[in-house]
User: What shape does this take?
Amino acid sequence: MNSWILDNFWAHFAVFTIVILAFVIIGVMAFIYVERRGFGPFQLRRGPNRAGPFGILQPIADAIKVLLKEDVVPDRADKVLHTLGPVIVFLPVLLIFAVIPFHGQIGGLIANLNVGIVYVAAISSLGVVGVFMAGWGSENKYSLIAAMRVVGAMISYEIPLVLSLVAVVLATGSLSMNGIATGHPLPMILLMPLGFLIFLAASMAEINRGPFDLLEADSELVAGFHIEYSGMKFAMFYLAEYGHALAMSAVAATVFMKGWVGPWDAYLGWFWFILKTLMIFVLLVWLRVTFPRMRIDQMMSFAWKFLLPMALINLLVVGIQVVAFGGDIPWWMMFINFGLAGVLILGWSKFFRPGGARVEYQV
Amino acid sequence: MKIDEAKTESVILEIPKAQPVMRDVEIIDTDAPGDDVFVLNMGPQHPSTHGVFRMRVTFSGELIEDMQPIFGYLHRGIEKLAETRTYTQFIPMTDRLSYLTSMANNHAYVVAVEKLAGIEVPERAEYIRVIMNELMRISSHLMAVGFFLNDLGCSVFTPLLYMYREREKLLDLFEMVCGARLTYNYMRIGGVSQDLPEEFLGYAKQFVKEMPSYIEEYEQLLAENEILLARTKGVGVLTPEMAVNSSASGPVLRASGIKWDLRKADPYSLYDRFDFDVPVGEIGDNYDRYRVRIEEMRQSLRILEQAIPQLPEGEVRTKVPQFLRPPKGEAYGRIETPQGELGFYLVSDGGIAPYRLHIRPPTLINVTALSEMVVGSLLADAIATFGSIDVCLGEIDR
Assistant: This one.
C-alpha cells in the first residue's frame, strides 16, 4: 500500500484517527449489544429484541436516552475533577488503539512503535487516574470508597499483567505489537496457557468486569465511582467501560492469539482480528454473568498470593525454554506447558484459597 | 387478665409524652474535620436493603466499627387497623406483612382466631393449608437464596433469574387456587376460601417431581463455587447463645445449630402426620443459612410428596358466622413461616373486632442481632449478612 495517505504524515494522522474513533464507537456499540443480548440465554430470557431486528439498535436507543438526560453536578463536588474524570477515563482507550495492528502491512494504525507493548502497559493504567478523580471529585461517600478500592486493586493487578506480557516478549523476541503477532508460528495461548490465564484474570481486574467489578459493586456501593454522574458524562463512563473491554480484548487477541494472522495470510487481516477480539469478549461476558463478586481483601490477596507467584513461575519457565531452545520454542513444548499449567494452578490453589486467606478482624 | 379491667386501665392511663423514636441514635457530625471514623447511611434508598431499611454504619477504612439498624419507614399501623375490622376482614392485611410469604401469614392469623373462638377445621382444609404452606416455603426460600446471591454480587442477577423460573410455576399454582399471584387472601377462619381446582393436583405433582433436579442445578452452580465459599464461610456468624438470646427463629436460628422448628416442636395443623427432617447448620455463618434454606426446600418437597396423595375428600370450610364474636379471652397462634415463628396474639372483648392484636414478626426479631453479626467485618459482608437473614420490610415495620 503505497498510497499518499501513508506517505503524508498529516493525512495519515487525520484519516486513521477518524478510523480509530469510528472503530471504538462502533465496536463499543457492538460489544454492548453482544453483552446484553448474550446475557439473555445465560439468564433464561430473551434479551433486548424490540429496537430494530433482533434488538440490534438497542445500543443506539441506550445512547440517545443517556445523552438526552440532564447533566447534574453536585453542589459540593470539585467541578474541575468531576468534569475531567470521564475524559481521562476514556482517553487511554483511544490511545491504546494507536499501536494495535489491524492489518499486517500497516502495523499499528497511527504509530508502528517498536516498543508497542510497553506503551500499551503504560497507557492502560492511566485510566485509574480518571476513576480516582471522578470518585474523589464527586463528594460522595460511596464513590470515595470505590475510588480508594480502585487505586489499590488496579495497581496490584498491573504487576501480574505486565509480567505475563514480559514472558510473551521473551518467547517472541519482539516488543512491537506487530512483531509479537508474527514472532512465533504458534499463538501464545497454546504455547503458554498459564500466561494467558494470568493475563485474562489481571485484565478483567483492570477493566473492572466479572467477579472483580468492585469499584462499581452495585449491591454495595450503588454505582461506585460514577454514582453522581448523569447525561453525557455518564455516557463517557459507559463508553469507557466497554471501550476498555474492547481494548483489552484487542490486546489479548494480538498478543496471545496472533492478532490479524489468519489461515490465509494476506487476506482479511482485519476480519481475523475482530473475530478473535470478539471471542475474548464473549469469554469475558460468560465469566461476568456466572460468578459472584469477590471482596476487596480477597481480590488483593488473589493478586499478590496467586497471580504474582504464578506470573513469576511462568516467566521462569518461559525463560528456561527460550534459553534451552535458543530463542525458538518448538511447537511440541505446548503439550508440556499445558500440563505444567494444569499442575501449577491445581497445586497452588490447594495452598491458596480466597476464603482461607481471610483476615480475622478484631475491633 | 380480665378484659374489662384492661380497658378501663388504658383509658385512665396518661398517654406518655411522645419520645423521639430513635433516641438512642447518637448524632455525629459526619463532616467534622479530624474525625477518622467514616459514617455512612446505607439506606433507606439503597439497592440492596430489600425495602426501606437503613443501616447507619461507622467505618474505619472498610472495616465496620459500629452498625445501627434503623427502620420504621414503612409503618402502616396494621396492628391498630385490626381493631377497626372484623376478624375476617383482617385476613387480607396479613398478606401485606411479609409479602413473599402471604399464604403462611394468612395461616398464622387464622390459627390464632380459630384458637380464640374454638373452631374445628375440616381435614381436607388442613391438608390444603399444609400443601400451600410448603409451596410457599419453597417459593420464599427461592427468593431468599436468590436475593442473597444478588447481594453477594452476582451483579447481573443470574442465579436470581434461575430461581424466578421455578417461582413462576409456584405463582401459577397459587393463581389457580385463589386468582392472585402475590397477596392471596386464601385462608379463611375455619378452612380455606374455596376448594382446589381440578387441574391443581396434576400441576402440583408435576412440580414436586421436577423441583429436585432444579435444586441440583443450583447446587452445581453454587455449592462448591470458590468465590461463594470465600464470601460466605465464617462471615456473619451468629453464635447459638446469641441466636437464642435474641429469640431468633426460623432458618436463622437453625443455621446456628439449634434444632427448633415449630412444625416439630409445637405441631400445628397436621404436621405431626408427616415424616420430615429439620436441617441445622454448624456455626451459623452466611453459608449455613444458605445451606439450611436449600435443605429445607428438599424437606418441603418431602412433605408435599406425602401430603398430595393423602388429600382426603370433604368440606374445605366450617360454617362460621359472618360476624364472628369469639368469647372474651385471649389466644396466641403461631406457625413456622419460611422466615421464622410468626405469631398473632389476639385479645377479644366479645365484639366483632379484636380488642387488641399483636404480631410477633419473625424477621424483625431476627434482624435485631444484625449488628453483632456484622461488626468487625467489611462493608461487603454487611450487605451479604443482611441479605442472608431474609428480611421483609413489610413485616419489620408493619
